[in-house]
Amino acid sequence: MKAINPGHFLLTCRLDNWVHLLEENHFHIARDRLPQALYISATALALAPAAAAESLIYRKRIRETKIEKDPIFILGHWRSGTTYLQNVLSRDEQFGWFDPVNTIGLPYSLLLGRLIQPPIEKGIRNGRPQDNVQYSLDLPMEETFGVLTISPYSIIHMIAFPENYKKYIEGAFVSDLPVEELRKWERSYDYAVRKLTYIKKGKQLILKSPDNTARIRELWGMYPDARFINIHRDPYKTVRSTIHMFRTEMDSLRLTEEPDNIDELIENTVIDIFERMYRELFELEGFFPKNRYVDIAYTDFCRAPVDTLRDIYRRLELSGFEAAAPRFQAYVDSQRGYQKNKFDISPRLVRKINAKLGFYMEHYGYEMREVEEE
Question: Which CATH homologous superfamily contains domain 15-337?
Fold first, then answer.
């Protein structure tokens, strides 16, 4: 039996959403993952009264919360540097962001925030399983980990239910959803954004989830004055690191059996999502007003993060850079000892990347690697 993971991302899932996920996966749970599924079920059941009470007390107030300034969305494929960018940018105190308590505990954080803070802090203490990035209560998380607690439309559910991976890819490319389901996703996402706006007392939000790069058109429609920062990185490093991330997380967090050809499926899925994300983004690029969209390179940001942020503020016409610059620098200095993972990449994977992502390399000026003989 696999040991129970107290940091499983579904542990704080709202009961109705958890039941929905079980139903659409035919209640099929791998035998060695049964303790984890039972633990999630017990927790969802125990927290259901709090989720219902919070909805009863606060739902109207949250729905009526006005978003005075539409969010700033950080875009980019997984493993492109989006976390580092958001962490630095979050040091500007004029912005709000999804902290761990209001992300993981989204369904009931207004009522139970103080109660759930200690176990959440303990659960995130070991950092992310796929790299050396550390979490803390004072750093942002991806809002997708909050939205997935109240909505079945999330690509992250693929990690728990890999047998149904095609279904959950629709949670990234929400344009593939039937209209009624798309509206449900929009309502869940907007509820999370309005709730955080309410909690952060109207601050403009910085939102970062890589899957947002797959639904820019929908987000722009929901928040027409939003600003977008896209960070791009060498696709060979990005793809190889993303494969490692999904493989590591699936080993730890899956609840069902894996398909027999899971490694090849992960490779192909990562590359196919990457390709579609950026083909769709490049179609939209020319339609953004000048002060609404900016591209930055991961290497430029790592080399000169504060100067890069200065340029972002200028191009997006954001105020407050000079006041925030010392805090940006202090965070950058605190990360000097961070060690990135390094991975070998096979000639077979290089071929796949060359075949699918040549357009991305041409757009950003990355050199296509020659394929070495295996």
Answer: P-loop containing nucleotide triphosphate hydrolases (3.40.50.300)
